[in-house]
Amino acid sequence: MLYRLLALNIDGTLLRSNGRLQHSTKDAIEFVQKKDVYITLVTNRHFQSAKKVAKALKIDSHLITHGGAFIGNRLDEPLYVKRISEEKTFNIVQVLEYFNCNIRIIHERFSIGNRKKISSNLVSKMLLNSSDPLFYPIQFVESLADALIDEPVAAPKIDVYFDTKEELKEAEKTILDSFYDVDVIKVHDGKIEIVPKGISKLNGLQVLGNHLGIKLDEMVAIGDGLDDLDMIQQAGLGVAMGNAPFEVKRAADWITRSNDEQGVSYMVKEHFRKQYPIKFLNKIKNR
Prior knowledge:
Elements: E1 5-8, H1 10-14, H2 23-33, E2 38-41, H3 47-56, E3 63-65, E4 70-72, E5 80-81, H4 86-96, E6 101-106, E7 111-114, H5 122-128, E8 138-141, H6 144-150, E9 157-162, H7 165-178, E10 182-188, E11 191-196, H8 201-212, E12 219-223, H9 229-234, E13 237-240, H10 246-251, E14 254-255, H11 263-272, H12 278-286
Helix pairs in contact: 2-11, 4-6
InterPro entries: Cof (IPR000150), HAD-like_sf (IPR036412), HAD-SF_hydro_IIB (IPR006379), HAD_sf (IPR023214)
GO cellular component, one term: cytosol
Pfam families: Hydrolase_3
């Protein structure tokens, strides 16, 4: 099978546990680019943060960000964007503020969240992964609902962090029972993401594939999280990282090494070394 697109998750896949890129990963990306394969990043990060990683890897293509809600190569000219309306964002935040959770509205230009303290260190880890606050302002307020009354926001994505699995489950059920036009994606036991109905990493790949004329079965998707599961199942070649949970590994066609053991570079070079450059194959076909 000839694969024409490589889709890579960022955190837990491209990046090591310390948040850094390995030189071997950069080399692997360059290796695949020489095969004329389209490379995209598929991530829950906001666009500007993903663009920073793409720049480090010398990837200049459309990126699937905000969990699939914002796709593009430039901030001002997205290929695709879908948002939760201002009114719906406000109503969701009102409901969430009854729970003990940290709420973050992730807009492509800024982030705003409540100052609710939870014992989990997930939020602090997330902030460390954010891009430069000079270019992506991050604001915290006492009451997010009150802030939205003064300055409404149509959110591409809302991130919510919890201390306990029980509270997460209760909040997830409440949101799904109350709002029919959003989806709730469980990232792990301490975090959910609320997105417009139908938004997912898989949907983002389908949108980009339609734009490029590339089918799902011509794609390789590499990820490590529960939110990567659908795209790993549906891609032509689905790859799970060695650090992925069992459910993700079970759905994959290929399991590579972990993100701290050069998993991406190992898989990419092992597989794509067998594939001729696409332009070369097209020349032969046209003779």
